[in-house]
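Methods — Computational structure assignment.
A single polypeptide chain was analysed. Its primary sequence is given first, followed by the predicted tertiary structure written as structure tokens.
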Amino acid sequence: MSSRNASTILAFALCLVTFAVNLQAPLYTAYAALSGQGAAATAVAFSGYVIGVLPVLLLLGGLADRVGHKPLILAALALSMLATVLMLLAPGLAQLAMARTLLGVGTALASATGTAYMCELMQDGDARAAANRVTASTSLGFGLGAAVTSLFLLSGPTLAPGSFPLHLALAALAFVAVLGLPNPVQRRQSALLRLPFYPQGSLAYGLAILLAWACVGLVIALMPSILARHHLGNWSGLSTFCVISCGLLFQPLARRMASARSTLLGLLILPCSYALLAWGADAGVLAAVLLGAIGASSACYGFIYLGGLSAVNTLAGTEKTRASAGFFLLAYLGFSLPVIFTGMLADHFGAGTALVLFGALLLTGCFAVAGALLRTSRHSAFEAIR
């Protein structure tokens, strides 16, 4: 098999793994109603994903060294299909929490090995090209699942939209295709436990991605119920697609910028985009929601994500794996805890108040982190002159 075909198969498989992650997002309001719960319970179920991600991401970093890359991709695909089957057979918030935990484990397995496996399959040793392909395929999948479900829901409400069997069919095809891929890694008995590491100057970048992914998590978990009040619930999948996948359009520009400058630009864009998005959601203006989501995506998956990850890897020296784990630890904490807190506020004080309070905290956080980045950049420049 040619390296081009092999890398395309892997990209297809990674896209299907992440396709399943937000496949159910437009149905969150329906699951909550079915279970008699509110926004806080929905946010907790949504955060089951992080419960699955963190142990694998932080504690099983050496797993690929022991079993090889291909088995982990196959396991990730199998877990994504199992989660989809679960939501088809038993829709509800409790089942959603279980499904998202399975999806978290699968995504972590794919994340832990995807870039290294892609680099091996491409056979040219270009780690940056491999990372770009993995980033593009996974980002597309994260947004596409929700968007496809929204399209199927336009024909009428259902708890079993056609996007679910579509995912199962495509994931099964990807599973069979991955079985034919080589598994060239040399297995070795390395340590499974690899704790995160924060090199000097990296914490501000981790806090920046925490703020960015908190905004993304809020759009995915809480926006469906807010939009449903204006009879726009079926468009929540499109807002999820915009807040994730549209960031791909800004990655080429982010790559041409210095890491600190890229991250600072993202911190400037993020609160402005959120303000437009939140106003649109509260007022029922779909265009404002989608434009705000695209702007937030440029910050979250364009400038802050690439700028921050690049800076952390540069600062880490030989500890890149542990430093990346630390970066993503903060990212996934942002993806869960602020969303649960905002869901509780929405249940007690209303969605409008919750959105305003989240926005105030987001703005304060962006100012604080930007100030820390500016101080770090000036210190580094001064040390370089000395």
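Note: The chain has a mean pLDDT of 85.
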